[in-house]
Specification:
It is a single chain. With 236 residues, the protein is an alpha/beta fold. It is built from eight helices and seven strands; from the N terminus they run H-H-H-E-H-E-H-E-H-E-H-E-H-E-E. Strands 3-2-1-4-5-7-6 form a seven-stranded mixed beta sheet, with helices on both faces. Helix 4 links the parallel strand 1 and strand 2. Helix 6 packs parallel to helix 7. It is globular and about 45 Å long.
Protein backbone atom coordinates (compact mmCIF):
# COMPACT_ATOMS: atom_id res chain seq x y z
CA UNK A 1 0.00 0.00 0.00
CA UNK A 2 1.33 3.44 -0.89
CA UNK A 3 2.18 5.42 2.23
CA UNK A 4 0.62 8.87 2.33
CA UNK A 5 2.83 11.95 2.23
CA UNK A 6 0.28 14.24 3.85
CA UNK A 7 -0.85 14.66 7.46
CA UNK A 8 -3.79 13.09 9.26
CA UNK A 9 -4.30 10.39 6.63
CA UNK A 10 -6.08 7.27 7.72
CA UNK A 11 -5.27 5.03 4.77
CA UNK A 12 -6.08 1.89 6.77
CA UNK A 13 -9.61 3.13 7.42
CA UNK A 14 -10.02 4.34 3.84
CA UNK A 15 -8.88 0.94 2.59
CA UNK A 16 -11.30 -0.88 4.88
CA UNK A 17 -14.17 1.18 3.45
CA UNK A 18 -12.97 0.44 -0.08
CA UNK A 19 -12.86 -3.25 0.81
CA UNK A 20 -16.40 -3.10 2.19
CA UNK A 21 -17.73 -1.31 -0.88
CA UNK A 22 -15.92 -3.54 -3.36
CA UNK A 23 -17.11 -6.71 -1.61
CA UNK A 24 -20.68 -5.51 -2.10
CA UNK A 25 -20.46 -3.72 -5.44
CA UNK A 26 -17.35 -4.97 -7.28
CA UNK A 27 -16.66 -8.42 -5.83
CA UNK A 28 -13.58 -10.49 -6.59
CA UNK A 29 -13.30 -11.25 -10.29
CA UNK A 30 -10.93 -14.01 -11.49
CA UNK A 31 -10.03 -12.21 -14.72
CA UNK A 32 -9.35 -8.84 -13.12
CA UNK A 33 -7.54 -10.45 -10.19
CA UNK A 34 -5.35 -12.43 -12.61
CA UNK A 35 -4.46 -9.22 -14.43
CA UNK A 36 -3.29 -7.60 -11.19
CA UNK A 37 -1.25 -10.69 -10.29
CA UNK A 38 0.34 -10.75 -13.75
CA UNK A 39 1.17 -7.06 -13.50
CA UNK A 40 2.78 -7.45 -10.08
CA UNK A 41 4.70 -10.56 -11.14
CA UNK A 42 6.09 -8.70 -14.14
CA UNK A 43 7.17 -5.82 -11.92
CA UNK A 44 4.81 -3.21 -13.33
CA UNK A 45 4.27 -0.20 -11.04
CA UNK A 46 1.14 -0.49 -8.90
CA UNK A 47 -0.58 2.40 -10.64
CA UNK A 48 -3.74 0.54 -11.62
CA UNK A 49 -7.03 2.08 -10.59
CA UNK A 50 -8.76 0.40 -7.66
CA UNK A 51 -11.68 -1.98 -8.19
CA UNK A 52 -14.13 0.71 -7.14
CA UNK A 53 -12.54 3.24 -9.48
CA UNK A 54 -12.60 0.71 -12.30
CA UNK A 55 -16.28 0.08 -11.67
CA UNK A 56 -16.89 3.85 -11.70
CA UNK A 57 -15.17 4.21 -15.07
CA UNK A 58 -17.17 1.31 -16.47
CA UNK A 59 -20.43 2.82 -15.21
CA UNK A 60 -19.55 6.17 -16.76
CA UNK A 61 -19.00 4.47 -20.11
CA UNK A 62 -22.37 2.76 -19.80
CA UNK A 63 -24.15 5.91 -18.64
CA UNK A 64 -23.21 7.76 -21.81
CA UNK A 65 -23.75 4.74 -24.06
CA UNK A 66 -20.12 4.78 -25.18
CA UNK A 67 -19.23 2.69 -28.20
CA UNK A 68 -15.71 4.00 -28.79
CA UNK A 69 -13.29 4.73 -25.95
CA UNK A 70 -9.75 6.07 -26.10
CA UNK A 71 -7.40 5.30 -23.22
CA UNK A 72 -4.07 7.11 -23.02
CA UNK A 73 -1.90 4.94 -20.78
CA UNK A 74 -2.60 1.19 -20.74
CA UNK A 75 -0.11 -0.09 -18.15
CA UNK A 76 -1.23 -3.72 -17.64
CA UNK A 77 -4.77 -3.19 -19.04
CA UNK A 78 -6.66 -3.44 -15.74
CA UNK A 79 -8.73 -0.32 -16.48
CA UNK A 80 -8.83 -1.35 -20.14
CA UNK A 81 -10.65 -4.54 -19.18
CA UNK A 82 -13.17 -2.58 -17.10
CA UNK A 83 -13.89 -0.29 -20.05
CA UNK A 84 -14.03 -3.09 -22.63
CA UNK A 85 -16.55 -5.03 -20.56
CA UNK A 86 -18.76 -1.94 -20.36
CA UNK A 87 -18.96 -1.58 -24.13
CA UNK A 88 -21.53 -3.21 -26.38
CA UNK A 89 -20.36 -6.21 -28.40
CA UNK A 90 -19.68 -3.93 -31.37
CA UNK A 91 -17.77 -1.39 -29.24
CA UNK A 92 -14.04 -0.71 -29.30
CA UNK A 93 -11.47 0.71 -26.91
CA UNK A 94 -8.25 2.00 -28.41
CA UNK A 95 -5.59 1.99 -25.70
CA UNK A 96 -2.11 3.46 -26.07
CA UNK A 97 0.98 2.25 -24.17
CA UNK A 98 4.47 3.66 -24.62
CA UNK A 99 6.35 0.84 -22.88
CA UNK A 100 6.55 -2.28 -25.08
CA UNK A 101 7.16 -4.52 -22.07
CA UNK A 102 4.04 -3.22 -20.34
CA UNK A 103 2.13 -3.62 -23.60
CA UNK A 104 3.13 -7.29 -23.79
CA UNK A 105 1.71 -7.93 -20.32
CA UNK A 106 -1.38 -5.91 -21.18
CA UNK A 107 -1.98 -7.89 -24.37
CA UNK A 108 -1.79 -11.17 -22.45
CA UNK A 109 -4.26 -9.85 -19.86
CA UNK A 110 -6.65 -8.72 -22.60
CA UNK A 111 -6.40 -12.08 -24.36
CA UNK A 112 -7.03 -13.93 -21.09
CA UNK A 113 -10.11 -11.78 -20.53
CA UNK A 114 -11.45 -12.78 -23.94
CA UNK A 115 -11.66 -9.15 -25.03
CA UNK A 116 -9.22 -8.98 -27.93
CA UNK A 117 -12.12 -8.32 -30.29
CA UNK A 118 -13.02 -5.11 -28.42
CA UNK A 119 -9.52 -3.81 -27.64
CA UNK A 120 -7.08 -2.21 -30.07
CA UNK A 121 -3.72 -1.86 -28.34
CA UNK A 122 -1.36 0.68 -29.91
CA UNK A 123 2.26 0.56 -28.78
CA UNK A 124 4.22 3.79 -28.90
CA UNK A 125 4.47 7.21 -27.31
CA UNK A 126 1.01 8.71 -27.15
CA UNK A 127 2.13 11.94 -28.80
CA UNK A 128 3.27 9.84 -31.77
CA UNK A 129 0.19 7.60 -31.83
CA UNK A 130 -2.53 10.23 -31.39
CA UNK A 131 -1.73 12.06 -34.67
CA UNK A 132 -1.94 8.68 -36.42
CA UNK A 133 -5.39 8.11 -34.97
CA UNK A 134 -6.48 11.48 -36.31
CA UNK A 135 -4.98 10.73 -39.74
CA UNK A 136 -6.80 7.39 -39.79
CA UNK A 137 -10.09 9.09 -38.83
CA UNK A 138 -10.25 6.73 -35.85
CA UNK A 139 -12.39 9.18 -33.91
CA UNK A 140 -14.50 10.66 -32.70
CA UNK A 141 -14.41 8.87 -29.37
CA UNK A 142 -17.30 8.92 -26.92
CA UNK A 143 -15.06 8.78 -23.83
CA UNK A 144 -11.36 9.57 -23.47
CA UNK A 145 -9.44 8.49 -20.37
CA UNK A 146 -6.10 10.23 -19.76
CA UNK A 147 -3.91 8.26 -17.37
CA UNK A 148 -0.32 8.51 -18.55
CA UNK A 149 2.71 10.70 -17.75
CA UNK A 150 1.38 13.86 -16.14
CA UNK A 151 3.86 16.40 -17.60
CA UNK A 152 2.32 15.71 -21.02
CA UNK A 153 -1.28 16.08 -19.83
CA UNK A 154 -1.74 19.46 -21.56
CA UNK A 155 -0.72 17.92 -24.91
CA UNK A 156 -2.96 14.91 -24.29
CA UNK A 157 -5.87 17.28 -23.70
CA UNK A 158 -5.20 19.09 -26.97
CA UNK A 159 -5.28 15.79 -28.83
CA UNK A 160 -8.33 14.60 -26.90
CA UNK A 161 -10.23 17.62 -28.18
CA UNK A 162 -9.15 16.86 -31.75
CA UNK A 163 -10.42 13.30 -31.38
CA UNK A 164 -13.68 14.23 -29.64
CA UNK A 165 -17.19 15.29 -30.62
CA UNK A 166 -19.78 17.39 -28.80
CA UNK A 167 -20.83 15.21 -25.88
CA UNK A 168 -17.53 13.35 -25.51
CA UNK A 169 -16.52 12.79 -21.89
CA UNK A 170 -12.86 13.39 -20.99
CA UNK A 171 -11.55 11.98 -17.71
CA UNK A 172 -8.13 12.79 -16.27
CA UNK A 173 -6.81 10.57 -13.48
CA UNK A 174 -4.48 11.37 -10.57
CA UNK A 175 -5.16 15.10 -10.46
CA UNK A 176 -5.00 15.63 -6.68
CA UNK A 177 -1.63 14.05 -5.97
CA UNK A 178 -1.98 13.92 -2.21
CA UNK A 179 -3.07 17.55 -2.14
CA UNK A 180 0.05 18.80 -3.92
CA UNK A 181 -2.03 20.10 -6.82
CA UNK A 182 -3.00 23.10 -4.68
CA UNK A 183 0.65 24.19 -4.40
CA UNK A 184 1.17 26.86 -7.04
CA UNK A 185 4.91 26.92 -6.24
CA UNK A 186 5.49 23.20 -6.70
CA UNK A 187 8.41 22.26 -8.92
CA UNK A 188 7.25 18.64 -9.19
CA UNK A 189 6.84 18.00 -12.94
CA UNK A 190 3.75 15.88 -12.31
CA UNK A 191 2.06 18.62 -10.31
CA UNK A 192 3.05 21.27 -12.85
CA UNK A 193 1.60 19.14 -15.64
CA UNK A 194 -1.66 18.53 -13.81
CA UNK A 195 -2.06 22.20 -12.92
CA UNK A 196 -1.47 23.23 -16.54
CA UNK A 197 -4.01 20.60 -17.62
CA UNK A 198 -6.62 21.95 -15.20
CA UNK A 199 -5.88 25.54 -16.19
CA UNK A 200 -6.45 24.62 -19.82
CA UNK A 201 -9.74 22.92 -19.02
CA UNK A 202 -10.93 25.91 -17.00
CA UNK A 203 -10.05 28.37 -19.76
CA UNK A 204 -11.46 26.43 -22.70
CA UNK A 205 -15.04 27.41 -23.59
CA UNK A 206 -15.48 24.07 -25.36
CA UNK A 207 -15.38 22.22 -22.04
CA UNK A 208 -17.69 22.03 -19.04
CA UNK A 209 -15.79 20.39 -16.20
CA UNK A 210 -15.35 19.58 -12.56
CA UNK A 211 -12.82 17.75 -10.40
CA UNK A 212 -13.42 15.47 -7.48
CA UNK A 213 -11.14 14.25 -4.71
CA UNK A 214 -11.07 10.58 -3.78
CA UNK A 215 -9.67 8.66 -0.82
CA UNK A 216 -9.25 4.92 -0.55
CA UNK A 217 -6.74 2.13 -0.95
CA UNK A 218 -4.91 4.29 -3.53
CA UNK A 219 -4.50 7.12 -1.04
CA UNK A 220 -5.66 10.69 -1.64
CA UNK A 221 -6.17 11.58 -5.26
CA UNK A 222 -8.97 12.31 -7.68
CA UNK A 223 -10.35 12.74 -11.18
CA UNK A 224 -11.02 15.66 -13.50
CA UNK A 225 -14.18 15.17 -15.55
CA UNK A 226 -15.16 17.23 -18.56
CA UNK A 227 -17.86 17.16 -21.22
CA UNK A 228 -17.08 18.58 -24.64
CA UNK A 229 -19.66 21.20 -25.51
CA UNK A 230 -18.21 22.06 -28.89
CA UNK A 231 -15.12 21.03 -30.85
CA UNK A 232 -14.75 24.35 -32.69
CA UNK A 233 -12.00 26.52 -31.23
CA UNK A 234 -13.04 29.87 -29.83
CA UNK A 235 -12.38 32.36 -27.09
CA UNK A 236 -14.14 32.67 -23.76
Amino acid sequence: MRKPDYPHADVEKWSSVDSYFSTLLAPADPVLDAALVANATAGLPAHDVSAMQGKLLALMARMIGARRVLEIGTLGAYSTIWFARALPASGTIVTVEANPNYAEIARANIDRAGLSNRVELRVGKALDVLPLLEAEAAGPFDLIFIDADKPNNPDYLRWALRLARPGTVIIGDNVVRGGAVADADSDDANVVGVRAFLDMIAADPRLDATAIQTVGEKGWDGFALAVVRDTAEGER
